Amino acid sequence: MAREKIRWDQSFALGVAEIDDQHRQLVNLVNRLIDINQGPRHKQATVGALEDMIDYLDAHFSAEEQLMIDRDYPGLEDHRREHQIYVHQTEAFVTAFKDGEKNLSDDILEFLQKWLVEHILDADRRLGDFIKGRGAHKV
Ligand SMILES: [Fe+2]
Q1: How many Å lie between the centroid of ligand 1 and the Cα of residue 123?
Q2: What pTM did the predictor assign?
Q3: Distances (CA, A) of 41 to 44, 52, 68, 92, 107
Q4: Does 100 map to a domain?
Q5: Is residue 51 one of the residues assigned to a domain?
Q6: 103 pLDDT band (50/70/90 cuts)?
Q7: Mean pLDDT value across residues 88-105
Q8: DSSP E strands: which ranges in 1-139?
Q9: Are 26 and 57 in contact, with CB atoms under 8 Å apart?
Q10: What is the pLDDT of residue 105?
Q11: How many domains does the chain have?
């Protein structure tokens, strides 16, 4: 059965323009992976999509973490740990997939998709609320 892609929802929007734009891009990257995986499996395309995602995650997480540092956000360490777990997990999927240990299973897509949505709705929302609470809508 075809996996449903993530549909951008207004509830994802934190009201911090830079971060919201990056989150939209991340949603697109996960959706692209879902698309590729549903077609005839082109290994190279899947590896490429995963690597693009890791590159983008690095840039996005760095931007978020810098924002937290700049604003003295008290939840920085926990939030950063969540980011690290996701990056390590995604890197492990790329390695395993390259080595031919497994196909990109639905479990992996489920993990990538679910983590992103839950992280945006929970940890990132708390960060967004904190930033807005300080009267700084624009970053
Ligand atoms: Fe985050």
Answers
A1: 6
A2: 0.90
A3: 9, 17, 39, 19, 16
A4: yes
A5: yes
A6: low
A7: 84
A8: none
A9: yes
A10: 83
A11: 1
